[in-house]
Amino acid sequence: MLDAAIQFPAFLSAEIFSLGPFELFGTQIGPFALRWYALAYIAGLLLGWRYMVSLIRTDRLWADKTRPATEPQLDDFLFWATLGVILGGRLGYVLFYKPDMIWLNPGEIIAIWNGGMSFHGGLIGVGLAIWWFSRKHKVPLFSLGDLVACAAPIGLFFGRLANFVNGELYGRATDVPWAVMFPTTDMFGTPAFTEPRHPSQIYEAILEGLVLFFILRFATHNKLVLQKPGMAVGIFLAGYGVFRFLVEFVREPDQHMPEALRGYITMGMLLCLPMIALGVWFVLRARGGSAKSATAKA
């Protein structure tokens, strides 16, 4: 079984361009090092921002050619989205996965360089950023959310690839031909499992990143769903929720879950259920709004 597994690429490591634990090209920069995960965040945010700009430049996607925001406004929104991703992702990780950190080691909460980010927390953070930005700049809330939803799979794709490079968040032990032997320690030196495992990070990069992106791309460019505010948000939430729920069956179970539930249900599954329900609500709301608008025009 071990001989048949794919060996994790030896040239990959958590830190790049690093000559020591806290050095970049030999320059001391405090507790920060340039990591693959940081580059994934940067690539996802910048490419997502550019994709949003390309969407608002495409006239036929919008009803009466009215966009939810201007290009300068999207430039400004990038900062707030980044803040929402980082703060929401870290606080979500602490609340959902490591709540004991609050009373045992509160100083560790801000130590994002030590790892630990939650997608669901980042989603809440970006949602709050969208709400605040729409109120401040008087832009349509649901349409701005649609733009962000269309770009989100880009960040998810790069983020999951970074998870793979870091040798973290891998799957359960398996004997499938594409099973991967991950390093015996994780990116921080913590002992890890040694059995061949599902490369669940790659599964998620494909499903939550590539597949979900092209589903939304088809919906926006062929079905013109951006003319139905909230529809793209609903497709994203429901699509991500379903894909993540399915992949959770092959991800390593959460060790902090109650013994009676461990192996049957994970925190990721629990967090995806309200996402799916909310996504369905957004889709139904957008369809209902379109029907009412069509009736009114008739």
Any chance you could write out the topology, listing elements then pairs?
Layout: E1 6-7, E2 23-24, E3 27-28, H1 36-56, H2 71-97, H3 101-104, H4 119-137, H5 141-166, E4 180-181, H6 200-221, H7 231-247, H8 267-297
Parallel strand pairs: 1-4
Antiparallel strand pairs: 2-3
Architecture overview:
The protein has one domain (9-297). It has eight helices and four strands, in the order βββαααααβααα. It has helices spanning 36-56, 71-97, 101-104, 119-137, 141-166, 200-221, 231-247, 267-297; strands at 6-7, 23-24, 27-28, 180-181. Strands 1-4 form a two-stranded parallel ribbon. The chain starts with 5 loop residues before the first strand and ends with a helix.
Q: Compute the CA-based radius of gyration.
A: 21 Å
In which order are the strands of the major sheet placed? 1-4
| SSE succession | EEEHHHHHEHHH
Shape type: globular
Uncertain regions: pLDDT < 50 for 5+ in a row? 13-29, 291-298
* Terminal Cα span: 66 Å
What share of residues are in beta strands? Answer: under 5%
Mean of all residue-level pLDDT scores = 79
The helix/strand class is mainly alpha
Discrete helix count: 8
Quaternary structure state of the chains depicted: single chain
The total number of structural domains is 1
Question: Helix proportion of residues, in percent?
Answer: 55-70%
In total, how many beta strands? 4
Reported for the largest beta sheet, the result is:
2 strands, parallel
